[in-house]
């Protein structure tokens, strides 16, 4: 009976695929059997977002969102709370990993041109997710309230002030005043844990809804080269997510997040102050724009020129479904590749230059070194468990591949 039920189920799925092979069919939608690594970026981003939520909630239990206690509360999390240093490092490292994955996913969508026609709503919600994730990284950078984060936030929030008419109001909205101060931290905290997560949740919900309505990229090849989304593809996605989490946890133990000295609003900026890596390319463009002094008599500063360039680039990025509607689109593909190479090149160039000269909180660094030494013994049994789970998942993947191939062959034979 169970065998008959399974056959009927697969028959029903196959019939659905016959009517419209590209239309979603719930969890049993078909995807390509031989997936490229880029096919797993979306699912990996969702898993990293879940990790951000869990670790962020745990940090929220002890963090104090005010300028007087914020730095000390982070120190307590790192030193006094059991596993606190690992939780904070996981939150910090996974946020960077999430940004990388979302950027790669966006680049893959642009190069594959899966934003055309009916898939444009999926693209727009994905763009909103990218901006929200970047902004979450920016707002979260200030929360430890250390020397570099205070100065970098002052520079970042000062850029919009160059926009005519509305610029100063935008800067004051983020800072809470004309200058960065104690009132800025609660605003960034509210954005980081309230407004931005709501935007991410809504955008992600609509993103998944449009994916179910219009499908992902078309699964190429005959039916024999397709597998159901569940459980075949989900097992593969689980394996990828397992390894991403395992690597992140290992990195968190080997290279814990640092805690610099408490931020001082009156102290001079540390030499070499710069934003996080995902804004370094924009930072370099702004610095190079300062050499275009011939525009100064026209009232166009380096910051304003950079903002104009960024606005044009963002506008083209957002309007891509309108600008690249049909045809092979070789020109746009090369432009996208050039921008991606320039972004990576500028980022690496800025990272290879001298790092910011900021003193670390020595008491925290010493204590974390002791805790890390104790945690190193955990890695061997942990990776043994990971390899065991990997073997089990691979066994299930091979089993379901055989079942799917057998059911599909039976269905094709019946239709002849």
The percent range for strand residues is under 5%
What is the CATH architecture term of the largest domain?
Answer: Up-down Bundle
Can you count the beta strands?
2
- Measured between the Cα atoms of the first and last residue, the distance is 25 Å
Range of helix content: 55-70%
List the helices and strands and how they pair.
Blueprint: H1 2-19, E1 30-32, H2 41-60, H3 70-79, H4 84-112, H5 120-142, H6 147-158, H7 167-175, H8 184-214, E2 226-228, H9 229-254, H10 280-289, H11 302-318, H12 320-323, H13 330-352, H14 362-415
Helix pairs in contact: 1-14, 2-4, 2-9, 3-4, 4-5, 4-9, 5-6, 5-8, 9-14, 10-11, 10-13
Architecture overview:
There is one protein chain. The protein is an all-alpha fold and 416 residues long. It has two domains: 33-218 and 226-266 and 363-415, Cytochrome Bc1 Complex, Chain C (Up-down Bundle); 274-355, no CATH class. It is 69% helix and 1% strand. The chain has helices spanning 2-19, 41-60, 70-79, 84-112, 120-142, 147-158, 167-175, 184-214, 229-254, 280-289, 302-318, 320-323, 330-352, 362-415, and strands at 30-32, 226-228.
């Amino acid at each position: 009976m169970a065998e008959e039920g399974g056959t009927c189920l697969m028959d029903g799925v196959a019939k659905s695929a016959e009517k419209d092979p590209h239309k979603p069919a719930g969890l049993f939608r078909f995807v390509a059997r031989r997936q490229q690594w880029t096919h797993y970026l979306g699912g990996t981003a969702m898993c990293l977002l879940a990790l951000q939520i869990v670790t962020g909630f745990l940090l929220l239990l002890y963090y104090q969102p005010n300028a007087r206690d914020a730095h000390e509360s982070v120190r307590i999390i790192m030193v006094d709370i059991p596993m606190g240093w690992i939780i904070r490092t996981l939150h910090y490292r996974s946020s960077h990993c999430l940004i990388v994955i979302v950027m790669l996913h966006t680049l893959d969508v642009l190069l594959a041109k899966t934003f055309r026609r009916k898939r444009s709503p999926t693209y727009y919600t994905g763009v909103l997710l990218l901006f929200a994730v970047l902004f979450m990284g920016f707002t979260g950078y200030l929360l430890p309230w250390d020397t570099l984060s205070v100065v970098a936030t002052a520079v970042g929030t000062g850029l919009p002030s160059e926009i005519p008419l509305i610029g100063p109001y935008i800067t004051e909205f983020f800072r809470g005043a004309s200058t960065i101060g104690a009132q800025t931290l609660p605003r960034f905290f509210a954005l980081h844990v309230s407004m931005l997560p709501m935007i991410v949740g809504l955008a992600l919900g609509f993103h998944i809804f449009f994916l179910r309505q219009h499908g992902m990229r078309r699964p190429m090849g005959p039916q024999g080269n397709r597998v159901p989304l569940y459980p075949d593809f989900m097992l593969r996605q689980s394996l990828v997510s397992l390894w991403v989490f395992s690597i992140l946890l290992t990195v968190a133990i080997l290279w814990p997040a640092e805690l610099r000295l408490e931020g001082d609003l009156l102290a001079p900026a540390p030499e070499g102050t710069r934003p996080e890596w995902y804004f370094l390319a924009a930072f370099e463009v702004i610095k190079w724009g300062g050499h275009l002094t011939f525009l100064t008599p026209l009232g166009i500063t380096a910051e304003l020129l950079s903002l104009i360039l960024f606005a044009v680039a963002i506008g083209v990025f957002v309007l891509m479904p309108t600008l690249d509607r049909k045809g092979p689109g070789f020109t746009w593909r090369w432009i996208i590749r050039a921008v991606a190479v320039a972004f990576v090149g500028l980022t690496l160039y800025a990272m290879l230059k001298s790092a910011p000269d900021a003193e670390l909180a020595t008491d925290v660094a010493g204590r974390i070194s002791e805790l890390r030494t104790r945690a190193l013994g955990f890695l061997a049994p942990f990776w043994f468990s990971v390899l065991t789970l990997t073997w089990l998942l691979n066994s299930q993947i091979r089993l379901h591949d055989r079942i799917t191939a057998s059911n599909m062959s039976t269905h094709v034979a019946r239709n002849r």
